[in-house]
Amino acid sequence: MAILELKEQDFQKEVLLSDKPVVIDFWATWCGPCRMMAPIVDEVAKEHPEWKFCKVNVDEQGALAARFGIQNIPTIAYLENGVVIGSAVGYMPKEMLLSRLGKK
Fold this sequence. Notes:
Elements: E1 4-5, H1 11-16, E2 22-27, H2 32-47, E3 52-57, H3 62-67, E4 75-80, E5 83-89, H4 94-100
Parallel strand pairs: 1-3, 2-3
Antiparallel strand pairs: 2-4, 4-5
């Protein structure tokens, strides 16, 4: 499944009204750990279509990042029914990301 580049105007439709749990990757182009996480997030997104994966470029979508209180990147937020149920900051290997999502 393709990863959606999330914009503020799409937040309600794509996240709050999603019929699937949502994983949001907060990142920036200048962030080395974010670039290291990108292929891992891409791979997990392809393997787990039961989740909706989104990316938020914090430089372009500052209001959306502020809405989540993002202070460090990469940050991965996990939402169900529009409610944050967990988050993780920093680079993590695939196995750790899957564990955070409740997948083995």
